[in-house]
From TrEMBL:
Domain Thioredoxin span(s) in chain numbering: 16-134
Residue segments, region Disordered: 145-165
Name of the protein this chain belongs to: Putative thioredoxin
Coiled-coil stretches: none
Organism name: Tessaracoccus bendigoensis DSM 12906
């Protein structure tokens, strides 16, 4: 995401929602041991941790392992994948009640959530992890996992906090996203063209709307009601939360092309807001902006 997005200390980082960008060397996959377990549980307070219990003696689980690695690394920090070799760490597997491999669970805010056991297709695994990401955001877990290899360099240090954003940041940290929107609106009255404030307001509004989302119900409603604006807005929000920006933009641009000209403005406004969440200089946003201009004019 661009510099206009949340990069200051204390702000909720929605860059973890983007699947763009290649992961650093080592990616977002680690081997988990009993000694590391408590530390990894602590990380789940910031972002979801996917825990895979596997065995080198189980060739049928290799496809699941590869799919998990690919999906997690492609998400570029939305998740951390922690892999437990049950042969090397039998006590950890036993303590968590693992009875077969592969078994995959999620750690979200320190809580263990079973995902699936046995083999599963890449598509099904991707859908499950999308639901994990949505659940994490709905609970205010919007941090970004650090790449496993290498510590941050001095060039990666965050800039000093800007006191202008203290109230908005405090609301975000408290999970009060509605209040955060109000605080950003107040800042926009002072500096209506401030790119950081505009992006912050867009991200806070997305978090506010997505609280309590039921992913399955949203997908079903969008499929059953292709012309229903609220249903399509919710589906686009869900896609953005899960880093599927192009799908979200395609959905709303297609809808804008179909409705009457006088009904396009709400779609335009929502698209502009989601462009800010994705990052206004991202290629997928620039492409969608061009399409939007064609639809409108």
């Amino acid at each position: 995401m661009t510099d206009a997005n949340f990069s200051r200390p204390g702000a909720v980082d929605l860059s973890s929602l983007s699947g763009s960008g290649a992961p650093a060397a080592g990616g977002y996959v680690m081997d988990l041991t009993e000694a590391d377990f408590e530390a990894v549980v602590g990380r789940s307070a910031k972002h979801p941790v996917i825990v895979e219990f596997h065995s080198p003696r189980d060739p049928s689980g290799s496809a699941v392992s590869e799919s998990l690695k690919d999906i997690v690394n492609a998400a570029a920090g939305r998740f951390l994948l922690a892999r437990v070799d049950v042969d090397a760490e039998p006590r950890l597997a036993q303590a968590l009640g693992v009875q077969a491999v592969p078994t995959v669970v999620a750690l979200i805010g320190g809580q263990l959530a079973p995902l699936f056991q046995g083999t599963s297709s890449r598509e099904d695994i991707s859908a499950v992890l999308d639901q994990v990401a949505q659940l994490a955001v709905a609970n205010g877990l919007t941090g970004r996992a650090e790449p496993v290899a290498g510590a941050p360099t001095s060039g990666d240090e965050e800039p000093p906090t800007n006191p202008r954003f203290d109230k908005a940041d405090a609301a975000l940290a408290a999970g009060d996203f509605s209040r955060a929107v109000t605080e950003f609106d107040a800042l926009l009255k002072e500096t209506p063209r401030d790119a950081e404030v505009i992006a912050g307001r867009a991200q806070a509004a997305l978090l506010d709307r997505s609280t309590g989302f039921d992913a399955a119900a949203i997908v079903r409603a969008a499929s059953e009601k292709p012309d229903d604006l609220p249903a399509q807005f919710d589906a686009a929000d869900l896609e953005v939360i899960n880093g599927r920006y192009e799908e979200a933009f395609d959905r709303l641009l297609g809808l804008a092309a179909e409705v009457a000209a006088e009904d396009r403005d709400p779609i335009r406004v929502r698209l502009l807001e989601l462009f800010e969440v994705a990052g206004r200089t991202e290629q997928v946003v620039l492409k969608a902006r061009r399409r939007l201009a064609t639809v409108l004019f």
